Amino acid sequence: MNLNIFPQYPFIGLFIYIVIILVATVLAVKISSFLINRVTKKFEIELTFNYLLRDLVKYLIYIIAFLMILEVVGIDINALIVSVGVVGITLGFAARDVISSFVSGIFILADKTVKVGEVIEVNNIKGKVTKLGFRTTTIVTPDNLIVTIPNTVLAKNPYINYTFFDKYRIDLEVIIPFNIDITNFEKALIQRISNLNWVLIDSSAKVDVLEMNEDGIKVKISAWGENYSRIDCYRLDLANEVRKLIGEMD
């Protein structure tokens, strides 16, 4: 490729070609992201696949741009490939974590056990998934911290998906005074809980006795709702109903 468009300044032509490639790369990444967003939105494809596809296309564009720059500066790509082959084992060890993260990202997408928008917990870190890429998964914690988790962590460690299903159990542990009849308390409380507008009709609230101690009888109250983001509010509703009922029966 003849880059000497300014014979008196041979490096100017080289610089211009590299700048053109870099600008074209940036534009190609932005245009591809825009098109992928439009297509996935039109066909209602989930965001998880959107992010992974955008990552794949982005890295392919970067690789192509890198190879073009090598050709522009006069580096023999074939010779480079041979050289890489000679040191391939060393590079393989150096890049094994990156490659492992890529493979893990593919399996996560295939398993569909983690999706963008769901709430997960891994290694005692809990948050909402905002991005799932080939190498990393990004979550936002309840205190608004952004945590980037390598996909290998999700592949190698057990994790909890709090929002995989459409309904969620809300538990509340309380101490009931000894002077209150547990059977009557259970019947009255279940009736009250059933009247709460968020409690699912097709689920059964219940009261389980956990233990007895010097303070009273410890019970666990359980009910089912369908909006995970309001679980704390639901638990507050349960506590308020328990407070009022204990006051009436005490």
What does this structure look like?
By secondary structure, the chain is of the alpha+beta class. Helices cover 52% and strands 21% of the residues. The strands form two sheets. A five-stranded antiparallel beta sheet has the order 4-3-2-1-5. A hairpin with a 2-residue loop joins strand 1 (119-122) and strand 2. Helix 7 packs across helix 8 (231-249). The longest helix has 33 residues, at 10-42. The chain is elongated and about 90 Å long. The termini are far apart. The model has no long low-confidence stretch (mean pLDDT 84).
- The proportion of strand residues reads 15-25%
Low-confidence stretches: none
The Rg value, from CA coordinates, equals 29 Å
The ordered string of helix (H) and strand (E) elements is HHHHHEEEEHEEHEEH
What multimeric state do the chains show? single chain
> Helix/strand/pairing class, anyone?
alpha+beta
Distance between the termini: 92 Å
The count of DSSP E runs of length 2 or more, i.e. the number of strands, is 8
DSSP helical segment count: 8
Largest β sheet strand count, sense and barrel closure: 5 strands, antiparallel
Largest beta sheet: strand ordering: 4-3-2-1-5
* Approximate shape: elongated
In percent, how helical is the residue content? 40-55%
Calculate the mean pLDDT score and round it. Answer: 84
